[in-house]
Amino acid sequence: MTVEDETGVLCRVPMRWGDMDPYGHVNNVEVVRLLEESRIAALGVPVGTGDQVEPPLIPFFSALPEGTQALITENRIRYLRPLEYRNTPVEVRVWVVSARGGALTLGFEITDVVSRRACVRAETQLAFFVPATGTVLRISAEQQELLAPHAGPRVFR
């Protein structure tokens, strides 16, 4: 599977020198951080958790009610080849795999900017919890419409 350039949105996430492990490539824990940073660049800062200075590429989190918590319920990651440290941002394509019920599943592909080859593919599932009511927030039809243009394929079958 190769993700098409038109799928989802493309985020550029800075790599850090300290992201490397002793083998000279980005550590698997830091890959999860890259996924998190690209998710925030794509969807925005969750409501009430920080200052949204740069506008998100898909303003989904700002469409959630105040106080809603975005919780990770699952991460699946496939490492295709080592992601070498570069002193330039890594490219991460983010797309919507599924948005229904109370769950949003995102797909990710991290590409080495020099070789242009995919290094990592991943899926992250989120649920949205409203502490004030103790309930999981269901994704509305309007929110599904906002996400629909950014849909793409499943990473895992």
TrEMBL record:
InterPro entries: 4-hydroxybenzoyl-CoA_TE, HotDog_dom_sf. Pfam families: 4HBT_2 (PF13279). GO terms for molecular function: fatty acyl-CoA hydrolase activity. It comes from the Bacteria. This is 4-hydroxybenzoyl-CoA thioesterase. It comes from Kocuria rosea subsp. polaris.
